[in-house]
Amino acid sequence: MESKAERSTSSFDTIKWLVVFVLIAVGVVGNQYFSAESLLYRVLGLVVLALLATLVALQTDRGRRFAALLKEARVEIRKVVWPTRPELIQTTAIVVVFVLFVALVLWGMDSLISWLVSGVIG
């Protein structure tokens, strides 16, 4: 069963998410409303609203968990062993050759089936 502290935190989180959605809605409506204004001002306004929405979202439980996930993903990406340039070129060449081969086989099968159907139909 939920304790009182968990319920108050979730209700505050709900309010924070409502604020996030209101900020996003203000950005969308404001961008439409001020469509005659300079693109620079509209983009700056959207960036400011996006930053505010992000800051509010990061104050929620889900936002903190998402930020932790991003940090963990960054650590994992650092562990990735990226291919060397020759390996990359060789693998790309193999993929291109295989795709071309399959395309030719499919084109041949399509041509054969088309020829057979046109022969039957007359």
UniProtKB/TrEMBL annotation:
PROSITE patterns: SECE_SEC61G. The chain crosses the membrane at residues 12-33, 39-58, 88-109. The keyword Glycosyltransferase does not apply. InterPro entries: SecE_bac (IPR005807), SecE_sf (IPR038379), Translocase_SecE/Sec61-g (IPR001901). It comes from the Bacteria. GO terms for biological process: intracellular protein transmembrane transport; protein secretion; protein targeting; protein transport by the Sec complex. One of its GO terms (molecular function) is protein transmembrane transporter activity. Keywords: Cell membrane, Membrane, Protein transport, Translocation, Transmembrane, Transmembrane helix, Transport. It is found in: Membrane. GO terms for cellular component: plasma membrane. Component of the Sec protein translocase complex. Heterotrimer consisting of SecY, SecE and SecG subunits. The heterotrimers can form oligomers, although 1 heterotrimer is thought to be able to translocate proteins. Interacts with the ribosome. Interacts with SecDF, and other proteins may be involved. Interacts with SecA. Belongs to the SecE/SEC61-gamma family. Essential subunit of the Sec protein translocation channel SecYEG. Clamps together the 2 halves of SecY. May contact the channel plug during translocation. This is Protein translocase subunit SecE. It comes from Marinobacter confluentis.
